[in-house]
Recover the amino acids of this structure.
C-alpha cells in the first residue's frame, strides 16, 4: 500500500472531518467507503472496533479517531497547509474547542439528522448506497428498513432524543457565535484551523452546505419544520461560518 486508506461511512460527518483534513494537508489517500453495519468487516480487518473513520497508514500507525487523523494530517502538511499553529497556547485552545465539537455537537447533529430521515425509506436508501461497493449498495438497498431499525435503537433516536439534540446544537452554535462576535473570521482568529474544520464538518448535517448536501434530499423535500430549522441555523453566525468554510474549501484544499 503506497497511500493511506481511509475507511469510512461516506456520509458520516466524522468521516467528512477526516477526509477534509487529509485534503487540506495535501495527503493523497484512497477512500474505502461502506454502508453502516456493513462497514464492520473492513473496520475489524484494519484492527478497529466498530467506529469510523479509520486511517490505515503505510508502514505506520492505524488511527481510529477522527481527531487523531486530523493531527496526523497536520504533521504531513507542507508549509501553509497545516491546521495547527506552532504556539502551544493556541493549540491548547483549538484542542479544547475540538473536544466540545466532537463530544457534544457531533452526536447531536447525527441524532437530529437521522431523526429527519429514518422514517423515509427512499431518502435512507439514497444515503446508504452512494459511494460504496456495488454489492454492498445492493445489500443496503434491500436492507434499508432493518438497517434503519438498528440505527434507531443503537443511537436512541426518538422524539425526546431529537429534541434534546436540537437544544444541544443550539447551545454549541451559541458558543461559536460568541467566539465570532468580535468580528474575527475564524474561531481562533484570522487563520482557518482544525477547530474551524471540525466545527464545519460536524455542523454539516444541520446546515447541509454544498457539496456535503449532495447525499441528502433537497431542502424542499425535507419535512417543513426541519427545512425551516435548517434555514434558521444557516442564518446564525455559526451557520455562516460553516457555509463560508465549505464555499472556500476548494481554494484551501
Amino acid at each position: 500500500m503506497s497511500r493511506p486508506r481511509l475507511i469510512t461511512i461516506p456520509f458520516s460527518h466524522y468521516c467528512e472531518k477526516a477526509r477534509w483534513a487529509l485534503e487540506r494537508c495535501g495527503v493523497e489517500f484512497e477512500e474505502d467507503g461502506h454502508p453502516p453495519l456493513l462497514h464492520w468487516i473492513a473496520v475489524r480487518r484494519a484492527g478497529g472496533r466498530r467506529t469510523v473513520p479509520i486511517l490505515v497508514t503505510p508502514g505506520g500507525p492505524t488511527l481510529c479517531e477522527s481527531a487523531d487523523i486530523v493531527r496526523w494530517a497536520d504533521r504531513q502538511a507542507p508549509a501553509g497547509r497545516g491546521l495547527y499553529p506552532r504556539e502551544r497556547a493556541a493549540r491548547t485552545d483549538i484542542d479544547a474547542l475540538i473536544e466540545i465539537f466532537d463530544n457534544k455537537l457531533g452526536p447531536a447533529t447525527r441524532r437530529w439528522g437521522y431523526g429527519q430521515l429514518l422514517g423515509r425509506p427512499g431518502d435512507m436508501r439514497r444515503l446508504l448506497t452512494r459511494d460504496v461497493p456495488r454489492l454492498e449498495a445492493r445489500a443496503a438497498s434491500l436492507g434499508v428498513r432493518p438497517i434503519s431499525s438498528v440505527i434507531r435503537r443503537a443511537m436512541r433516536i426518538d422524539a425526546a432524543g431529537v429534541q434534546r439534540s436540537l437544544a444541544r446544537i443550539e447551545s454549541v452554535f451559541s458558543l461559536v457565535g460568541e467566539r465570532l462576535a468580535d468580528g474575527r473570521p475564524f474561531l481562533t482568529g484570522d487563520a482557518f484551523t482544525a477547530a474551524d474544520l471540525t466545527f464545519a464538518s460536524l455542523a454539516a448535517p444541520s446546515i447541509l452546505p454544498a457539496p456535503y448536501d449532495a447525499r441528502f434530499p433537497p431542502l424542499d423535500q425535507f419535512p417543513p419544520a426541519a427545512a425551516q430549522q435548517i434555514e434558521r441555523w444557516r442564518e446564525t453566525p455559526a451557520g455562516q461560518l460553516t457555509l463560508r468554510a465549505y464555499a472556500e474549501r476548494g481554494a484551501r484544499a
In short: The beta strands are 5-8, 30-33, 54-56, 62-63. The first helix runs from residue 13 to 24.
